[in-house]
């Protein structure tokens, strides 16, 4: 934690929480056991982000494709979601954390929707960390729903096709108003995006750790942030340009 530069924190961290099933299997247990033990990792990560002053944390909890898992596992995950939200809302309140969701949440069981809605409403005035749960989410779903909304506006004559630009698309994505993640972490050593924030990850720094999600602790988050802070983000420019800009900014801050 001491190695983290507090001035250079990512504003938004996104995480693909992966490896619950393998973690359970290693212990000779059922996959659901891994999902249950994932909750402590969610707690620690959320708490660490709130303590550090990270403004947004997006957790990929259930993908569009995860609906294709065995019925028993999907049911267990939904139950776990309900009980966790019920249990944790007080903690969110105490820590000034605001809860949001992205995804086709109308596909979740009604009881999940109700619990989520309540927690979202209760925590709405909180001004600390914004915790965004990606549920029944996929990057393609997000782009698809944005395109539909834009097309409807064009149909109604509210918008011209020639006016559509990057900002128009961003304004219709489920993450509208939320800055793009600067850092994306994936646990369990898989080198893929699995249909997570496809548009939003365009220039995100990616950090992949072999640690399985139920083993992920505050220290693992700190390691990811330290790695992020050692990188040079060039956004298509040359390293020399970036260095010159940095020097200029320093002069400005001291002036
Ligand atoms: C991530 O762990 C949790 C969800 C996708 C809901 P997995 O359940 O994918 O665990 P592995 O990848 O099979 O180990
Ligand atoms: C990605 O993990 C989705 C979530 C973590 C919610 P998966 O385990 O579903 O991804 P794949 O199938 O290995 O790509
Ligand atoms: Mg997985």
Automatic annotation (TrEMBL):
Protein name according to UniProt: Isoprenyl transferase
NCBIfam families for this protein: PRK14830.1, uppS
Chain positions recorded as Mg(2+) binding sites: 18, 205
GO biological process per UniProt: polyprenol biosynthetic process
Organism taxonomic ancestry: Bacteria, Pseudomonadati, Bacteroidota, Cytophagia, Cytophagales
Keywords per UniProt: Magnesium, Metal-binding, Transferase
Record text on cofactor binding: Binds 2 magnesium ions per subunit.
Taxonomic source organism: Raineya orbicola
Keyword presence, Metal-binding: yes
Cofactor(s) of this protein: Mg(2+)
Family stated for the protein in its record: Belongs to the UPP synthase family.
Subunit and interaction comment: Homodimer.
GO MF annotations in UniProt: ditrans,polycis-polyprenyl diphosphate synthase [(2E,6E)-farnesyl diphosphate specific] activity; magnesium ion binding
Role this protein plays: Catalyzes the condensation of isopentenyl diphosphate (IPP) with allylic pyrophosphates generating different type of terpenoids.
Pfam families: Prenyltransf
Sites where the protein binds substrate: 19-23, 31, 35, 63-65, 67, 69, 186, 192-194
Signal peptide: none
The keyword Magnesium belongs to this UniProt entry's keyword annotation: yes
């Amino acid at each position: 934690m001491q190695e983290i530069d507090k001035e250079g924190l990512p504003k938004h961290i996104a995480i693909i929480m992966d490896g619950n099933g393998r973690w359970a299997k290693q212990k000779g247990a059922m996959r659901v056991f891994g999902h249950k033990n994932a909750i402590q990792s969610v707690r620690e990560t959320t708490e660490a982000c709130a303590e550090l002053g990270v403004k947004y944390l997006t957790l990929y909890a259930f993908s569009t494709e995860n609906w294709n898992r065995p019925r028993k596992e999907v049911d267990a995950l939904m139950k776990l979601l309900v009980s966790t939200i019920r249990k944790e809302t007080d903690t969110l309140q105490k820590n000034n954390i605001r809860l949001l969701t992205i995804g086709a949440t109308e596909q979740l069981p009604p009881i999940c929707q109700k619990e989520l809605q309540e927690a979202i409403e209760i925590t709405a005035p909180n001004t600390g960390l914004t915790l965004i749960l990606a549920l029944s989410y996929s990057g393609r779903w997000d782009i698809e729903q944005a395109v539909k909304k834009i097309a409807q506006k064009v149909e109604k004559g509210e918008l011209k096709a020639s006016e559509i630009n990057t900002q128009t698309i961003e304004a219709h994505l489920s993450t509208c108003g939320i800055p793009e993640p600067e850092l994306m972490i994936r646990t369990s050593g898989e080198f893929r995006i699995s249909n997570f924030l496809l548009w939003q990850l365009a220039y995100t720094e990616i950090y992949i750790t072999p640690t399985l999600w139920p083993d992920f602790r505050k220290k693992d988050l700190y390691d990811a942030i330290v790695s992020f802070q050692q990188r040079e983000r060039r956004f298509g420019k040359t390293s020399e340009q970036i260095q010159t800009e940095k020097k200029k900014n320093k002069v400005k801050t001291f002036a």
